[in-house]
Amino acid sequence: MKNIALIPARGESKRLPGKNIKKLNGKPLIAYSIETCLASRNISRVIVSTDDENIARVAKEYGAEVPFIRPKYLAKDKVGDREVMLHLTDWLKKNENYTFDNLIYIRPTTPFKSTQMIEEALKQIEDKKYSAIRSVTKSEGVFHPYWMYKQKNGFLNTFVDDLKVEKFYQSQLLPECFRLNGVVDITRVNTLKKYQNIYGNAIGYIEIDEERAIDIDTEFEFMLCEFMIEKELI
Q1: How far apart are CA 1 and CA 107, in angstroms?
Q2: What is the pLDDT of residues 126-180, one digit of tens each?
Q3: How confident is the model at residue 41 (pLDDT cuts 50, 70, 90)?
Q4: What rounded mean pLDDT belongs to the chain?
Q5: Which domains does the chain have, with CATH numbers?
Q6: Are 100 and 3 in contact (CB under 8 A)?
Q7: 207: β partners
Q8: Neighbour tally for 12: CB within 10 Å
């Protein structure tokens, strides 16, 4: 099977300008994801899709391919992941007559992923019962949806409708629950083409610890990651 890692990296970032190439402990943020993918023997190519020439330059310096500069219409806030993925598959087919089996979607804002995580997800996608594999983290205690509330007309209501919260007065009583973390996602190219969504209807998963699932979107999260590296907490 041919597996391609796609790292999407827009130039514009409202909350943390220039974050994709901002130096994290002396190394551009995107470099962490590139190096992790390059270390995998099961990834045929590591490609960065960006609309930004500076990001493209840095990505190439760290060993990624940047075969095109992403069109500006595909770099807007409301453009979804599927459009970016399809642009890659279509471009490679049209310009290189290149096809592949699985697309590994690697967001550059999660620097603490490991090659082992990617290998685990790739091993699962080999099982043909799965249309895609997604990485998740457990939602426990106050982060569990059973203990969450939404507001309606100024009043709090249980997030899960008609839930008897008193039944779950201890965290040990809460059913196992996961949240998507976006660290490693893999979809079959056939799934991407067949469905009007990315992942199809038979999704497998790999579980990732909370500390390795940090997604940098703010200065605080960036500083937290830097602290964790400096103190060798990761």
Answers
A1: 22
A2: 988 999 999 999 998 888 998 889 999 999 998 988 888 777 878 788 889 999 9
A3: very high
A4: 95
A5: 3-138+177-230 (3.90.550.10), 140-176 (no CATH)
A6: yes
A7: 136
A8: 12
Tokens 């500083």 label which residue?
Answer: 223
* Entry pTM: 0.93
210: left (phi over 0), alpha (psi -120 to 50) or beta: alpha
Q: Find where tokens 């937290």 sit.
A: 224
- Alpha carbon distance 183, 114 (integer Å): 10
Q: How far apart are CA 79 and CA 82, in angstroms?
A: 8
Extract the tokens encoding 30. 């995107």
